[in-house]
Automatic annotation (TrEMBL):
Keyword annotations of the record: Cell outer membrane, Membrane, Transmembrane, Transmembrane beta strand, Transport
GO molecular function: efflux transmembrane transporter activity; porin activity
Organism: Thermodesulfobacterium commune DSM 2178
Protein name per Swiss-Prot or TrEMBL: Transporter
Pfam families: OEP (PF02321)
Places the protein is found: Cell outer membrane
Superkingdom of source: Bacteria
InterPro entries: OMP_efflux (IPR003423), TolC-like (IPR051906)
Record-level GO cellular component terms: cell outer membrane; efflux pump complex
UniProt record similarity statement: Belongs to the outer membrane factor (OMF) (TC 1.B.17) family.
Residues spanning the membrane: none
Length: 427
């Protein structure tokens, strides 16, 4: 009785410890993985830094709206000639200059900077979408490899069952020893496949951890929640084409680049017009290095109208106009590429869906055929070659289901990425 109680307690504590080890694992959903990746992935930070350079340029342009204050020192030496003594004057004091009108050149430069920042915002969003899709791809690759491993384990069990059946028939003289050898070869092949897929899932999981900037040594401490392909549905092609042109960040970025270039052209045109500056200065003037006797105050305004600048302004304007036409063509080319990408992704999804449905039907047919031929082999109506041939096809069908299932899920996410959306994110 004591032994029974001791074994019961041992089993109870072993079960409790095993449950604790399972519950200690960190379980992450796909959405949580994407959010962790966006928080920790360095590609996002690089994109944000690129945007910051545009922000600094905006601040630089905006400074043109404010007055500039200088501390100015001048030294003049005058030789009046005719034997008269030289005159030296030191002047030292503040100098203020404020451009109050530049024919709107500064204003359009500022608008250009704002639109370039907006374009960089969309490029950050593009990076977010790319990183998210990379995480999704690695995440689905993990489950694909895991499914292939599980399918290989089922194949191994079928091969072992066939081996037991062949040995039993050989022992009673109903089949030759060659059947046993063929069945053993099938077991060895199945064991090889199991070994081949044994660690590929961990490798795929480690890639996911790398993308979210996690330590790969925690591969055994983290598990992922699976997705169900039954929840995947898509709409008609026109919906995705329209959505892509409305939401793809690449299109939005190009639109802002075109608008920014238009403001750039207007800014150059403004340089042909007059500018108005206010200026003021207060100097102490003397013939000593540090003057302290005479004071001079100046204030006024200056109107400047460029008459001839060596055709510099015309060349600059023509250059920016050409740049504007280039930006418009780039936008058109981007739209055409996006339409092609959406169309291709849509057809890839349809292909993946039909492949998955065909794989399921094939697997069901192979399972039924294998069950029948196994029964025939037991009664001597089929050879070992018939059984091993169908077992090989059954193994291939299981692998096809595993691969096509996660190809279907990935094609769904790829299609939405081509439209500028990730279902798990609200962008």
């Amino acid at each position: 009785m004591k032994k029974i109680i001791g074994l019961f307690l041992f089993f109870f504590f072993w079960l409790l410890s095993s449950q604790n080890s399972v519950f200690a694992k960190e379980v992450l959903s796909l959405k949580e993985l994407i959010l962790l990746g966006l928080k920790n992935n360095p590609q996002i930070q690089v994109a944000i830094k690129n945007k910051e350079s545009s922000v600094f340029y905006k601040d630089y342009v905006r400074s043109g709206f404010f007055p500039f204050l200088y501390l100015k020192y001048e030294f003049d030496r005058k030789d009046p000639g005719k034997g008269l003594p030289n005159q030296e004057v030191h002047s030292f004091g503040p100098y203020l200059n404020w451009n109050i009108f530049s024919s709107f050149s500064t204003w359009y430069s500022y608008q250009e900077a704002l639109k370039l920042i907006s374009a960089q915002d969309f490029m950050v969003k593009k990076t977010i979408l790319d990183v998210s899709l990379n995480i999704i791809q690695a995440y689905l690759e993990y489950f694909k490899q895991k499914a292939l491993y599980e399918a290989a384990l089922v194949d191994l069990e079928d091969a072992k069952t066939l081996l037991r059946l062949a040995k039993k028939k050989y022992e009673v003289g109903l089949s030759p020893y060659a059947d046993v050898l063929d069945a053993e070869a099938k077991v060895k092949q199945a064991e090889f496949n199991v070994t081949n897929y044994k660690y590929t899932a961990d490798i795929a999981k480690a890639k996911v951890l790398t993308l979210i900037n996690y330590d790969v040594l925690k591969v055994e401490e983290i598990e992922f929640l699976p997705l169900d392909e039954k929840n995947i549905e898509i709409k008609d092609l026109n919906f995705y084409l329209k959505t892509a042109l409305e939401k793809r960040p690449e299109v939005k970025a190009k639109e802002n680049e075109v608008l920014a270039q238009e403001d750039r052209v207007k800014s150059i045109k403004g340089k042909f017009g007059p500018t108005v500056d206010l200026f003021s200065s207060y100097y102490q003037v003397d013939d000593k290095f540090f003057p302290d006797k005479q004071n001079e105050f100046t204030a006024g305004f200056r109107i400047t109208l460029p008459i001839f600048t060596g055709f510099q302004r015309i060349a600059e304007l023509n250059k920016e106009k050409t740049g504007l036409e280039q930006k418009k063509l780039e936008k058109l080319n981007t739209e055409l590429q996006i339409k092609q990408e959406v169309f291709t992704s849509y057809k890839n999804y349809q292909t993946a869906k039909e492949n998955f449905e065909s794989a399921l039907a094939w697997l069901k047919s192979m399972e039924e055929d294998y069950r029948i031929v196994q029964k025939k082999y037991e009664t001597g109506l089929a050879s070992i070659v018939d059984v091993t041939t169908l077992l090989a096809r059954l193994s291939e069908a299981r692998s096809k289901v595993a691969v096509s299932k996660y190809n279907l899920i990935y094609s769904f996410y790829e299609l939405y990425r081509m439209t500028g959306v990730i279902p798990e994110l609200d962008l």
